[in-house]
Write a structure and sequence with these properties.
This protein is α/β, with parallel strands linked by helices. It has nine helices and four strands; from the N terminus they run E-H-H-H-E-H-E-H-H-H-H-E-H. It is globular and about 50 Å long. The longest helix has 17 residues. It has a single domain, classed as 3-Layer(aba) Sandwich (Rossmann fold), CATH 3.40.50.
């Protein structure tokens, strides 16, 4: 696996950003897209329809998007994870300490809920009380799945040997990596 300061040659054109819920995958994917001049699509926007109902066209939409020559998105959803890994040339793994990831997730959830921030297709964060009643509540999801990515990403070394994996363990490393991409030192 590569680190924040390792050169990437050729420059990434099909990029996945992996990590547990709350580490900043979408923010980082957007930053990477901007510095490389390639389109970023939030994979959640392809998955979630109105009322948080999964969209029937999700897999087809992901296949269409990833057939393009350049893109960046998040590595999520079991139904498309293999397609994404097969078509990507680089995976950026944000592997922050669990406490930091959960703190970020809590802050993001509160900001979205109290700000009534619309996310995808008219959806907003549900009431905080649903933490106690909905097993799929984002905070419960973040807690229960916090170590899943730490198991899945290393498996890609064997199942997707073409994929360059960049392992970033702090926000400072994330920032340095994105800066290097922007300087053409990817």
């Amino acid at each position: 696996m590569l680190g924040a300061d390792d050169p990437l040659d050729p420059v990434p054109r099909r990029v996945l950003v992996a990590g547990t819920t709350g580490v900043g995958k979408t923010t980082t994917a957007g930053r990477i897209g901007r510095v490389l001049g390639i389109p970023h699509t939030e994979i959640d926007s392809l998955y979630h329809g109105p009322g948080w109902v999964p969209r029937d066209t999700f897999v087809a939409d992901v296949e269409r998007y990833t057939s393009e020559p350049a893109w960046v998105t998040e590595w999520q959803y079991t139904s498309v994870r293999a397609i994404l890994a097969e078509r990507a040339d680089t995976l950026v793994w944000i592997d922050l300490p669990t406490a930091q990831a959960l703190w970020r997730l809590l802050r993001r959830t509160l900001r979205r809920r109290f700000g009534r921030i619309e996310m995808w297709n008219g959806n907003v964060e549900p009431s905080l009380w649903t933490f106690f009643t909905d097993r799929g509540h984002i905070l419960r999801w973040g807690i229960s799945t916090r170590n899943v990515t730490r198991r899945r990403v290393p498996e890609l070394v064997e199942t997707a040997p073409h994929l360059r994996i960049v392992h970033l363990r702090s926000q400072r490393e994330v920032d340095r990596f994105v800066q290097h991409l922007g300087e053409g030192r990817g």
